[in-house]
Write a structure and sequence with these properties.
With 414 residues, the protein is of the alpha/beta class. It has 14 helices and 12 strands. It has a 7-stranded mixed sheet, sandwiched between helices. The radius of gyration is 21 Å and the shape is globular.
Length: 414
């Protein structure tokens, strides 16, 4: 099942419990705008390559469109459409004033050198710039994009606007108006959410065995903050393979190792035993945190998950069929639109700082992030208990209700 189909399924699951007119449901399921552009790149050997770029703007009832830009061969309109909708519900679930957007280019960025990648990025932004703006649509890093790429976007946007419009993207280098704490924000948010759940369940973090699938920016900081809270991280993985130690892994040492290895991979890490992806997902742990790709927990393996808690640090790591099996087995699932919202929350802080030209210290950023993540979790937990809903359905219910209320107050609905 595609990410777009999964997002639609979870939306409809929550919407079924709300009194929404058919036309309102159609508005909420249909993007407000979809843009597809050609992105020509002249390579160093003189050949011309033409890539397809996309930007989907799903809903801006609560504020400007917000969502990342990814460079990956799998990018297509369907994927970007699903991710844009996911961003609408994520922003509303944690109650920050954004709508949902997403963009990307169908390209393997590792086939381009730095000059070619920069040219491609700047050309793409020039094509979609009429639809971007600090108060219109604010992109951010995503798969295979980073602070440096956001810096290229800022420079091109400033050139096109004949102004300093650094708030047009977030996730920028600090020197260009980025926010302290942004790099760690998604992983910190996942950890905050996980620990909040343990508090409600009356569980001691020090007694929790945790597996984290994915050791990129998100997964590594998730593992780091949970280990600092006392959790025992017994398995992690990245695209080079999985690594485990039932006595607990030294997460800071693994993060340092990645900094010195080729392309920041764990390949060859000496102080852990190699394990397969299947062993990581189905291992004897208390908490499983998929922080890598979508469609990792499915109908094929959900009945073998041993963890009693699944925290979705990645976007859409659980298929609807897998989610149903987990629910039948009474496994608590913290949904992606709550668990991994720390990144977009600190992106919101960065945007606010850019608009005000007043910058916060890291303690201020982290204090505000903690408050927002805790408040969002509390709202969702309480609704789930009140209406006997899963945390996922409760999160979508709150998000949908907030978006519909904004549309009504703006006169978009009668």
């Amino acid at each position: 099942m595609s990410l777009a189909d999964a997002t639609k399924h979870f939306f409809e699951q929550a919407a079924a419990g709300l009194d929404l007119e058919p036309g309102v449901r159609q508005l909420l399921e249909t993007p407000q705008r979809e843009v597809m552009v050609q992105v020509p790149v002249v390579k160093d050997d003189g050949t011309l390559e033409v890539y397809l770029g996309f930007r989907v703007q799903h809903n801006d009832a609560r504020g400007p469109f917000k969502g990342g830009v990814r460079f990956h061969p799998s990018v297509d309109l369907d994927e970007v459409r699903g991710l844009a909708a996911l961003m609408t519900w994520k922003c509303a679930a944690v109650n920050i004033p954004y709508g949902g957007g997403k963009g990307g280019i169908a390209v393997d960025p590792f086939t381009l050198n730095k000059r070619e990648l920069k040219q491609m990025t700047r050309t793409f932004i020039s094509k979609i710039f009429p639809f971007l703006g600090e108060k219109i649509d604010v992109p951010a890093p995503d798969v295979n994009t980073n602070a440096e790429v956001m810096g290229w976007i800022v420079d091109k946007a400033n050139e096109l606007a004949h102004d300093d419009v650094r708030g047009v993207v977030t996730g920028k280098p600090i020197e260009l108006g980025g926010s302290v704490g942004r790099t760690e924000a998604t992983g910190r948010g996942v950890a905050l959410t996980t620990l909040r759940l343990l508090k409600y369940l009356g569980q001691d973090p020090a007694k929790m065995k945790v597996a984290v699938q994915g050791f990129g920016n998100n997964g590594s900081y998730t593992a780091y903050y949970l280990s600092q809270a006392g959790c025992r991280i017994v398995a992690v993985s990245d695209i080079s393979g999985g690594f485990g130690d039932d006595n607990g892994l030294d997460i800071p040492a693994m993060m340092e190792y990645c900094k010195t290895s080729d392309k920041h991979l764990l390949a060859g890490y000496p102080d852990a035993s190699p394990i397969s992806n299947e062993q990581l997902l189905e291992g004897d742990v208390d908490i499983l945190i998929p922080a890598a790709l979508e469609n990792q927990i499915t109908a094929d393996n959900a009945d073998r998950i041993k963890a009693s808690i699944v925290v979705e640090a990645a976007n859409a790591p659980t298929t609807p069929e897998g989610d149903k099996i987990l629910a039948e087995r009474n496994i608590k699932v913290v949904p992606d639109i709550l668990a991994n919202a720390g990144g977009v929350t600190v992106s919101y802080f960065e945007w606010v700082q850019n608009l005000q030209s007043f910058y916060w210290d890291e303690d201020t950023v982290n204090t505000h992030l903690t408050n927002i993540m805790h408040n969002a979790f509390d709202d969702i937990w309480n609704l789930a208990k009140e209406r006997n809903l899963s945390l996922r359905t409760a999160a979508y219910t709150i998000a949908i209700e907030r978006v519909v209320k904004a549309m009504k107050l703006k006169g978009m609905l009668l």
